[in-house]
Amino acid sequence: MIKTITLPDLGEGITEVDISEILVAPGDAVHREDTLLVLESEKASMEIPSDYAGTVTAVHVAAGDTVQPGSPILDLDIGDSAEVTEAEGEPTLPAESSAPPATTPAAVVPPGPTVHASPSVRRLARELNIDITTVPRTGPKGRLTRDDLLNFIRDRMERPRPVEPEIDFSQWGPIEEFPLTKIRRLTGSRMQAAWQTIPQVTQFDQADITELDALRLRMKAAWSRQDVRITLLPFLMKAVAQLLNEWPDFNASLHPSGETLIRKQYYHLGIAVDTPAGLVVPVVKDVDRKDVVELSRELMDVSSRAREKKLTPAELQGATFTISSLGGIGGTYFSPIVNPPQVAILGVSRSRRQPVWQETEERFVPRLILPFSLSYDHRVIDGAAGARFTAGLSRLLADPDLIASWEVMP
Fold first, then answer.
1. Catalytic residue, candidates 60, 255, 268, 378
2. Would you say residue 216 lies in a domain?
3. Which among 24, 32, 50, 383 is most buried, taking Cβ atoms within 10 Å?
4. Of 84, 104, 133, at which residue does a domain stop?
């Protein structure tokens, strides 16, 4: 049986996309969930998986083509034993088979920006006005199922909902209405869910970074001729990575059952980037293995591409801890919201010269003081651990010699 695979409805008003890569060719064997091709939209890349198993007999598109939902992609020989149900658009066992399907406990995949789902499930989500990136998924390999959508709706209906009456503000004067960008809508939805489900505590502290900033200025001057911008953020990232190694509970996630803590043995930091469309958090991976200059170059790259909407979904996933820095804008302290499934986030404000009493000199001297805030999930981290973490960060930032890989000269 030859099945023509068409481009599924991508949702969110996407009417056409460019094909950047074809991953199969005639004669290739394809399994369910195998990636067939990679698409490029205005914001990011996305992979299109196969809903069927079979052999590719023909490919109707090429890299560089612009296609619309419903366009034929390829022909797949799925054999004579598979039937397709209209409800799900996925292969099922033939009717004469009486063997019950094997069942295994479903693992819940938390919401995220990349979602694999059949066209019928996506259509149902649109009809119900559900943003599928906010729905936990229980299908094979993290696939979104029809039951996931129904359970999501049932959960929302069972929650008490605040009454928010619509107000005609124009009765008091002129108004303008501006639609929120998709990024702001998604961020708002996720942050609201995080605030409602995570018992959060914020610990405030500060660090004397006088010597560290002197080191930064030396490195900035040395690397400026190579167009490397040395800011405070890479130093913060190195210090945080070292602390996460010492305090692994901060580099962990709580299992959905609430009974197990998953400690990660890698250090991928999400770095909040302010863009015209809203907050984007690209992930810098393996921070512990990179020096300050390498991190500086990577930050320049991802920050630029974040503002140009050129990050791929893979570059927005996998963070174990997040840093949100407002130092370039101002302010003193703020309480950042934990970004699940992470359990902690660091908020950094602008450093200021302040008089500090020196016991040895018996006088006040000007020092550069950095205020910062640590928000954490109180189900995983208690107040004493939070205070020790912020004290450790203050200690590392105050003494550049404690992290030898900080100073790198050309």
1. 378
2. yes
3. 50
4. 84
